[in-house]
Structures are given as C-alpha cells and as structure tokens.
Amino acid sequence: MKLTIKRVPTVVSNYQEDAGERPRGGCGRNCLGHCCLPVSELPVYAFKANPTKLLLQEDAVPTDFFINLLLGQWEDRMTQGLFRYDVTACETKVIPGNLGFVAQLNEGRHLKKRPTEFRVDRVLQPFDSAKFNFTKVGQEEVLFQFENSGSDDSYFLRSAAVSVADRAPNVVAINVSPIEYGHVLLIPRVLDHVPQRIDQESFLLALHMAAEAASPYFRLGYNSLGAFATINHLHFQVLYFRLHFSLLFTEPPSCIAVSIIVCGQQYYWTVFTCIL
Q: Bridge partners of 169?
C-alpha cells in the first residue's frame, strides 16, 4: 500500500505573500522585524522566575495551562492553513526492539521544507540578514511572547504591547514544516540577530519553558548548523510527542539528558542536542 499524507492549503508567511490586504504600520508586512514588531501587540506568557516554587495561590495558573495553551494555538494555526502540510496525517510507527526508535513517513518535510541558504561547512557562522531569518516571519505564525514574570507566579495576557526598550522579546512561533504534532520554535531575543549558537542565557530560557510544561511528553531540543538546522538564527525546537523515549531512564523534567555528538563527512561538526 502506498502511504500518502493529506495536503492542506498553505500560506507560508505574510513576508512571502504579495497579494491581499496589508495591515497598517511598519513595513506593511506585519513581520517580526524592527519595522513592525515594536509597534505591535502580541499575546504574552510570563513564566515563573523560580520554577521550583510551589503554586500556593488559588488563582495561580494550572500546571497544564501552558501545554493546553501551546497546543490550542498550534491547532488554530493549522485551521488557518499556515503549515506546508498536515503532519498529523503522516504514517508513524515504533520500530520493534528495546530502543523504541520511532519511524515517520513525512513526504511534506522532504518536498516542501525551506532549502538551506548557506554552506554547511562550519557549525558557527555569522548572522546574515540577507538570508531568511525569523524577523521575516509574519506575526500570524507567532503563538505568544515568552517572558520572565519576575515573580513566583506564571500568567498569560491575550494581548500586550511588544516592549523592546530594555531587551528584544522572546517569541514562540510555529514550525511551518513540522515533524510532529505541536511542533513550534522558541526564538530567544528575536531582534538581536543572534546566529544559531547556543549560549547560557538562551539555554536557561529553554529550561524555563520545560519547567512550565512539566510534562513527560514535552520535548525541547537544539540542533546546530551541520545537524539539519536550515536557518542561521538562534532557535530551539519544541514539540509534543506522546510516546515514551527508552533512552530517557526517568521522565522529564526530573531528568535532563545532554549529549555531545561529533559527526560529518569532510568536516567534523560538533552538535549539541538537549532532550528535556
């Protein structure tokens, strides 16, 4: 039997669409660049400054609120047809054996994923604003900002002005070429034009997101250039995967497995992979 996936109408982003009505303000593309973002309003999820603090207040955000919010917003973008294909229609199975490897037939990611715009001969490369980056993404692909609440409580605002006075905002946006249900991107300091290079601040931000999710099915990872990262703009991969990973001996967030992989053909690339 030939395996196929369901095709859905696609809008890549406002940045790449020339037809249709344009919003007012900025460059008219309603993008995440300096031209539009500072004059925009977006939802905000504010995470706890101290993730180990117990929730004592009756009006505190429920522990499953973050997951439900993320998946609900992801499904809304799917309804809008913003993905390049329907990943939920892809055939997926667990390969027999004690390692529990998962196989997926994802034709859309192979045929419709954005091509790499740089030479993959170095792990660290300078940011190039001429190439595609996340400041060129349309705001319709953004789920919410992800910021520190500065307190022991989390909260969510449906709409708030984007503040760039003190620091560039962190945003969560859909991956338009998903590999699994709920696949999104955590983009730290989107306006700072940081290349795909993990640092202490961005890694801590990713840990805060894992702590907010507090789910064994919440997966958060990082892949460098040379490890199938196609955009040289700092980001983490986030998805919801309801299968047990045998390589994790305890369920997240109580266990954080960090591995360093060296791979390559003509060159040796160092790839940092974080499984939360």
A: none
pLDDT band of residue 249 (cuts 50, 70, 90) is very low
Residues 64-81: tens digit of each pLDDT: 899 999 999 999 999 999
Q: How far is 276 from 258, CA to CA, in rounded Å?
A: 8
**pTM listed for this prediction:** 0.79
For residue 242, pLDDT over 90 is answered with no
The residue ranking higher by pLDDT, 163 or 72, is: 72
Assigned token pair, 207: 């840990």
Alpha-carbon distance of 216 to 255, in angstroms, equals 10
| CB 230, CB 109: distance < 8 Å | no
Query: What value does the mean pLDDT take over residues 26-39?
Result: 91
Q: Which of 183, 193, 208, 235 is catalytic?
A: 235
**Mean pLDDT, the chain, whole residue set:** 79
What are the residues whose beta carbons fall under 8 Å from the beta carbon of 100, sequence distance 6 or more? Answer: 94, 243, 244, 245, 246, 247
What is the DSSP secondary structure assignment for residue 79, as one 8-state letter?
H
- Residue-by-residue DSSP string for 3-50: -----------GGG--SSPPPSSTTSS-BSSTTTGGG-EEEEEEEPSS
Give the integer Cα–Cα distance in Å for 149 and 156. Answer: 10
210 token code pair:
């894992």
Q: What are phi and psi of 63, to 5 degrees?
A: -65, -25
**Is 208 an active-site residue?**
no
pLDDT on residue 18: 42
How far apart are alpha carbons 188 and 11 in whole angstroms? 24
What would the 3-class secondary structure string for 109-129 be? HHHHCCCCCCCCCCCCCCCCC
